[in-house]
Every structure is written in C-alpha cells, then in structure tokens.
Amino acid sequence: MFDIELGAVQERFADIVWRNEPVGSGELVKICEKELNWKKPTTYTVLRKLCEKGLFQNVNGMVSSLVSREAFYSSKSEQIIAESYEGSLPAFIAAFTSRKKLTADEVSEIQRMIDSIKQGG
After folding, report:
1. For residue 11, how far is the Cα from the chain centroid?
2. Which end of the chain has the lower number of beta carbons within 10 A, N or C?
3. What is the pLDDT at residue 100?
4. What is the pTM of this model?
C-alpha cells in the first residue's frame, strides 16, 4: 500500500500526467495551461512535489509515473476500507449499497469477480 496523500488539485494534475504519459515537461506545461489555467512555474512546482512524493519522475524532461493510476487508486481504496470500516470489505459494500442501488449489470460484474476469485484466478 502506498502512503501518498494528494490534495484535490494535485489529484487533477496526476490524472493529467497519467492520461498523457510519457509526456514531455514542455507539453505538460501547455496541457496544464489549457486544462487548469496554470502558468509554467505552477506546473513545475506541483510536478516537483509529486516527484518528491515518489509518484512521478522527470528524467531529461520526460515525465512518467512511478506508481500507476490503478495502483494509486487501489491503494487509496484499501486505505479507506482499513481506516473507516476496520478493514472489512463486506462492511464497506453494505454501507455503499445502502445509499446507491446497484444495477443488474453491476451485480453481474461483481458476481463474476467473486466467482473468479473462488476459482483461484
């Protein structure tokens, strides 16, 4: 589990990097200017901070992730379940589904996942 905390703005920036990686730092500045209305120094400051946290790397002006989007959000989900539901996935699902009804397709997809786990794969 990764212990990387991101604020909302850092998370939006991270999503931009994940969506475009590998991306040149100059191109990243242009994307952030367009999508976030940021100036060059802001982009480089946030990038530097996320590199220091171990999420991204900037090697010779090429930005890429050290932690994938999937791994980051999976870890974040595990942390929420551990902290808020005493590590109980069934308690999390019960809380989630008490407010949001699952569609038939969602139930089928979850059942396929459970069946796959039961079969060892």
Report:
1. 7
2. C
3. 86
4. 0.76
